[in-house]
């Protein structure tokens, strides 16, 4: 177990920069998720920690040792790949023991550690099978077992659940979380699935276009996104956005002339985007007018899709409703639940609390 | 109406596969007939070979096979051919396999160009190389040696193996080696402990393929050897080209059959290896 520090790391492929100056400190035993859309550099960053990619500039420090020029095998890390990368010619026992055999650990010790990992993951019955005779979920477990037996400084996960079906993914997700709580090994986890990142991690790092947009505990990102990108990326169903001009601090004029009264005055002026999460909108008598287009009840809650000016908004309410499509509803949100962004820069603007 | 159209469609869908199968069978017959004729003739007595019209019914004889074993050092030439085919096959699979891996995986400026250049060397007609090779071998004093022929064959086998193996390695997920490298292997270690074992079907079929190429090679063997290291194809050429006595068709077909036999067996082995998908289960399923 140990810390990981990423200091001013840059990465370019030839003239093409893919990571621009990323810094990140991961404390001992912490579970950090790197999340972002495809091509945001999250996998590249993970592979640089693993030593599979060179670092163009900056330092990566694992357990207080700069590892820039240290081979992957000497970094004392274990990695689980998206496609598992099990050795097809070895059975489960040999797959899990391979790293230990490379380190010339005694047979008894290898057997003991493989059995222990197999017990934790429920693989005891499968130890003599080849990977091709395993299901997707079992392969995924073997890949984790291979990492566990190592007892490494750091676990690296590269989208380990993406190849599983939805149900298994949720199950493996909680197993993974339980495993981390049990072993307490420092973990860096790459995913494009914000739900996975939110549910698993102590801290989420949102990346976009090779930079860190925002990092923080999952609920902090949810409650206080610092940019439009983070606001749109985190949360499901996604946040509603309305764009317009601020003529007075109290009202946003949408492009079609609809005036949206703001419950609290907003600082600054110019093009402004406000964002409200679907569950923070509520039906009221005097609010923003919207025409209902679709009602989707799920039992415990109901999602209403409606048109507000040129925008489609989603409203998520607890319980049920007798609102009908075509009806005009009025929605509003508490001042604290309205996120205000500068449209041009995408950065968050603070609301003025009077 | 609907049922009519349906039955028409069904008849059509049965008709074309049959035509394709028939065409395939016809092509097989055309290609296999000379081989069949050669094998058949090798069991005929000399007078039956030239019967007009050719006969399918005759008293089979092994006379040519016995004759062939005694004539012109054939058994030694057979051994030479085995040594040369195995030697050049093994050297080229080791060198070409490793080169193919490097081309497939190592990110190196100009690697692609190097690969293409090596492949382009295959474009040089062998006849243009045969004479210079003979001159080099003579000045080194190594004409008519097994090693000379083995090295000469490596010049065309290594590029061949390299490109075949490169394609094979490219098809393997690179995470396998990355995983091995994180698990404690060097790049070389990952190659030998992980990549080579799972590429065995490809390696073996490529090996057999290059051995077949070396087995049947005539030009270099003709130029670089004369007696001690000379191979079977040279013997066949000698029998066929005997202008003094006329070609001895009995001996020729017998030697030909004996030469083709291992190639056919090997080719069947290659097929078996190629079909076997050993890499299944490495990654997602």
From TrEMBL, chain A:
A Pfam family hit: ABC_tran
Any one GO cellular component localisation term in the record: ATP-binding cassette (ABC) transporter complex, substrate-binding subunit-containing
Bilayer topology annotation: Peripheral membrane protein
Gene Ontology biological process: carbohydrate transport
Keyword Nucleotide-binding: yes
Protein name per the record: Sugar ABC transporter ATP-binding protein
Annotated localization: Cell inner membrane
NCBIfam families referenced in this protein's UniProt entry, alphabetically: PRK11650.1
Boundaries of every ABC transporter domain copy: 4-234
Species in which this protein is naturally found: Nitratireductor aestuarii
GO MF, one annotated term: ATP binding
TrEMBL record, chain B:
UniProt subcellular location: Cell membrane
Xref: SUPFAM superfamilies: MetI-like (SSF161098)
Span of domain ABC transmembrane type-1: 78-270
Keyword field: Cell membrane, Membrane, Transmembrane, Transmembrane helix, Transport
GO terms classed as biological process: transmembrane transport
Membrane topology classification: Multi-pass membrane protein
Protein name (record): ABC transporter permease
Lineage: Bacteria, Pseudomonadati, Pseudomonadota, Alphaproteobacteria, Hyphomicrobiales
């Amino acid at each position: 177990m140990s810390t990981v520090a990423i200091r001013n790391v840059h990465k370019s492929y030839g003239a093409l920069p893919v990571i621009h100056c990323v810094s990140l400190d991961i404390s001992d035993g912490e579970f950090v998720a790197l999340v972002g859309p495809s091509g945001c550099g999250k996998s590249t960053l993970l592979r640089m920690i693993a030593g599979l990619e060179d670092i163009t500039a900056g330092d990566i420090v694992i357990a207080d040792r700069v590892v820039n020029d240290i081979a992957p095998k000497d970094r004392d890390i274990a990695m689980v790949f998206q496609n598992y990368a099990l050795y097809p010619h070895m059975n489960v026992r040999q797959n899990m023991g391979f790293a230990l055999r490379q380190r010339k650990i005694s047979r008894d010790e290898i057997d003991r550690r493989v059995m222990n990992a197999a017990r934790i993951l429920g693989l005891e019955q499968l130890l003599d099978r080849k990977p091709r005779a395993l299901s997707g979920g079992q392969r995924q477990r073997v890949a984790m077992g291979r990492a566990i037996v190592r007892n490494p400084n750091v676990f690296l996960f590269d989208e380990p659940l993406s190849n599983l079906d939805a149900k298994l993914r949720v199950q493996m997700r909680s197993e993974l979380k339980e495993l981390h709580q049990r072993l307490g090994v420092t973990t860096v986890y790459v995913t494009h699935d914000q739900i996975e990142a939110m549910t698993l991690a102590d801290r989420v790092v949102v990346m976009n276009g090779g930079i860190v947009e925002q990092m923080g505990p999952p609920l902090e990102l949810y409650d206080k996104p610092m940019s439009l990108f983070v606001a749109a990326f985190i949360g499901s169903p996604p946040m509603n956005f309305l764009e317009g001009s601020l003529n007075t601090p109290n009202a946003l004029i949408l492009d079609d002339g609809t005036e949206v009264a703001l419950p609290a005055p907003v600082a600054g002026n110019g093009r402004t985007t406000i964002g409200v999460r679907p569950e923070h909108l509520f039906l009221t008598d005097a609010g923003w007018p919207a025409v209902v287009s679709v009602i989707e009840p799920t039992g415990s809650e109901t999602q209403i899709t409606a048109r507000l000016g040129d925008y489609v908004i989603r409203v998520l309410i607890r319980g049920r409703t007798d609102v009908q499509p075509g009806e005009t509803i009025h929605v509003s949100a508490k001042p604290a639940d309205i996120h205000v962004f500068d449209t041009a820069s995408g950065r968050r603007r603070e609301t003025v609390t009077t | 109406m609907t049922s009519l159209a349906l039955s028409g469609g069904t008849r059509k869908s049965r008709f074309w596969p049959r035509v394709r199968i028939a065409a395939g069978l016809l092509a097989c017959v055309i290609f296999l007939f000379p081989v069949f004729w050669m094998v058949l003739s090798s069991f005929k007595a000399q007078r039956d070979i030239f019967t007009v019209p050719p006969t399918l019914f005759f008293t089979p004889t092994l006379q040519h096979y016995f004759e062939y074993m005694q004539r012109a050092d054939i058994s030694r030439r057979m051994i030479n051919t085995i040594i040369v085919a195995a030697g050049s096959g093994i050297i080229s699979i080791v060198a070409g396999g490793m080169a193919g891996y490097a081309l497939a995986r190592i990110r190196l400026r100009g690697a692609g160009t190097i690969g293409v250049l090596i492949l382009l060397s295959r474009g040089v007609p062998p006849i243009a190389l045969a004479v210079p090779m003979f001159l080099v071998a003579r000045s080194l004093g190594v004409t008519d040696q097994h090693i000379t022929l083995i090295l000469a064959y490596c010049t065309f086998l290594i590029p061949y193996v390299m490109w075949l193996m490169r394609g094979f390695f490219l098809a393997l997920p690179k995470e396998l080696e990355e995983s091995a490298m994180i698990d404690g292997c060097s790049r070389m270690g990952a190659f030998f402990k992980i990549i080579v074992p799972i590429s065995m079907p490809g390696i073996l079929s490529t090996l057999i393929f290059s051995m077949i190429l070396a087995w049947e090679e005539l030009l270099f063997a003709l130029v670089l050897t004369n007696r001690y290291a000379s191979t079977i194809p040279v013997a066949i050429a000698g029998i066929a080209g005997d202008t003094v006595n006329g070609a001895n068709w009995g001996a020729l077909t017998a030697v030909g059959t004996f030469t083709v036999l291992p190639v056919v067996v090997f080719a069947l082995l290659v097929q078996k290896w190629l079909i076997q998908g050993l890499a299944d289960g490495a990654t997602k399923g």
